[in-house]
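Pipeline run #58 for the internal structure catalog. This entry was flagged by the ingest filter as a single-chain record with no existing model, so it goes straight to prediction. Upstream metadata was stripped on purpose; only the residue string is passed forward. Reviewer on rotation: M.T. Logging verbosity set to normal.
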Amino acid sequence: MTVSRNLKKKQILRNNEYYHLQDVFDELHEKASNEYYFRDLMRIITSEKNILLAYRTIKTNKGSTTPGTDGRDITYYKNWGQEKFIYYFQNKLSNYFPKSVRRVEIPKPNGKIRPLGIPCMDDRIIQQCIKQVLEPICEAKFHNHSYGFRPNRATSHAIARANYLMWKNQLHYVVDIDIKGFFDNVHHGKLLKQLWQIGIRDKNLLSIIRKILKSEIQGLGVPEKGTPQGGIISPLLSNVVLNELDWWLSNQWETFKPRHQYSNVENKSRALKTTNLKEFFFVRYADDFKLFCRDYQTAQKIFIATKQWLQERLGLEISPEKSKITNVRKGKTEFLGFKLYVKKKRNKYVTRSNISDKAKQTMKKTLKEQVKTIQRNPSEKEANRLNAMILGMHNYYRTATLCNMDFKEIYYSVNKSLECRLKSQLTVIPNKSKTYMKLYGSYNTPAKGIKGIALFPIFGCKYLSPPRFSQEINNYTKRGRLLIHDKLNGYRHLIYYLLKQKSYNKSVEYKDNSISLIAGQRGKCFVTNKPLVIGNMECHHKHPIHLGGTDEYSNLVWLQTNVHKLVHATQSKTINKYLNELNLDKNGMRKVNSLRLLAENLEITL
């Protein structure tokens, strides 16, 4: 999971570089950091490169095949020409009216329903165009300790910050504040004012965002308030709403600016403790946030003040039954599926954590349901799906200090179901896969499996200390990006060249995949492994279009021009000419022949 998340971070940055937009986003971030007012953002939002980047980003999302109320998914644009695609969205943005939002209800573990709003694909692409431009501006304005729905940040970082405050700062009184139906109660007018206050003053853009917020919801009509969960821009807008709360809380202590300038944080903190200010810190992940205080009196005062501020400033109410003050020396506080508390060790309190009871029950139920599915359909696919579930649970909850004990409890419960329902199908697997050995090879227990697939041990979760977030990591600064990935040095000029080329007779999918592929091949010829040169490179369809081939990524390959001609050559004289020019080794000849066979040409024999 961590490797997958890191790859995703790098891919986002590479996508920005493919379309030569990273410098544009960097400039937006820098200007926002210097209190700049943006009045011409629609120019960037409607640019060709931004629209193509939005298509690429949406195409790689899991939800790209989920249709909206018009029944269309991302494949609808698959064979559109690039010029047609760009003109279509530029035209829509010039006089934008969103389509209705499809409503889907997802059952929650507590029996309630979570409503999701799924926009049509046109509107998702437009929202992505806007998000790409707004994000670098908002990132310059957001607080360091807001972790939800932001680039490079995860729940593990929020948990690490909470642990740090309880252990290092010894702040043991925790205020839990649960906003009642946050996403359904966001005030539209207030949100637009908050966007204006952080410097987004393009009136055309604000008008479009207002229309997005007012999009008709299927079966319910036009909403008066709220940002529907499921929209691409909704998480960013929700962070804008609560960013004001973040800074109000922070300015009470953490970022309070005294008249005197102190040389370090320790001196400042020591001086502030002599005033009437109340010492506390906060951690927020989306609408789930906690305040960490040193004593009960401070906790009580900040609890009342925050409740009042939310009501008066944002028009939001808190849930009385879920909002409370917890002394973590005596009780446990729940956060993002974890139970956090402290235990005394050598005259100092250290943090401890378990998986929450609700999360354990949900995992038990989910795994047992998959066992039932395997009972009805004992296949490799369903066995692999069960393994994916187990691995996902381990990756998320391994930052709980007592995760091993919690997963043993889950194992004993689920294993009964496994043994009873799959008794006739379960077999001992002597030869475990490389993945199994890499992840769970340290466990000596016999591996049982289905259809030759060894099932991952549910109890096999080892504690991993949650990583604290480095505030230097930033998608929109050169230094921040160096901590994530290296630039496309060596072949970025090829990407820029391709971006400038107009492909009138090619689909938007071909354009996107060919650019992505040249980075995938690291700017080198597939056959010769030599650097590609402008004027001596061609993108080849492995299975030709006239034989039913497509513009999919897997069907394309970049070749040197003479290699491409050799793949298609049929005359002996022509074949010999290019063989003499290329002087291919055995591996090169094997690749050429594999491409020739796919193109329904004869193999070349030497």
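catalog note: Residues 340 and 353 are 5 Å apart (CA to CA).
catalog note: The mean pLDDT is 88.
status: ready for reviewer M.T.
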